[in-house]
Amino acid sequence: MKKSLIALALSAAALAPAWAADIVDTAVKAGNFKTLATALTAAGLVDTLKGPGPFTVFAPTDEAFAKIPKAQLDALLKDKAKLTAVLTYHVVPGKVMAADVKAGKVKTVQGSELTVATTGGVTVDAAKVTKTDIAASNGVIHVIDSVIMPK
What we know:
- The chain has seven helices and seven strands; from the N terminus they run ααααβαααββββββ.
- The protein is an alpha+beta fold.
- Helix 3 packs across helix 7.
- It is globular.
- It has a single domain (20-144), classed as Roll (FAS1 domain), CATH 2.30.180.
- Strand 5 and strand 6 form a beta hairpin.
- A seven-stranded mixed sheet has the order 2-1-7-6-5-4-3.
- It starts with a helix and ends in a 7-residue tail after the last strand.
- Helices cover 42% and strands 24% of the residues.
């Protein structure tokens, strides 16, 4: 009996990633956050966003990153300190679902505040939220159409 419980626990642990994907795995699986995944890796933030959280991530799509001129994006990807600041500016501590979003200033993991507006749809600084409430085991992702820069 004891062996079968251990086997059951081990098999459940092996299946955990399939049903409880964290923010990074959820974004990668979505398929339209390749540049974000590359940037998170370059900044050394993958393990952080795979951590317990919870986090709310305003995730720019590949199209959002494409709005940045290539030379500027390449330079950003090579500057770990600046890249880390930009990426952590997209992350808010806690799990904030769309129904709980309120207009105003919100402190980011980076330390600065971003501005959330709710008139005519939700915006975060100058970026429009295009999809909300993509649930992950350690938080939530809201998709944005632009990369936002800390002030």
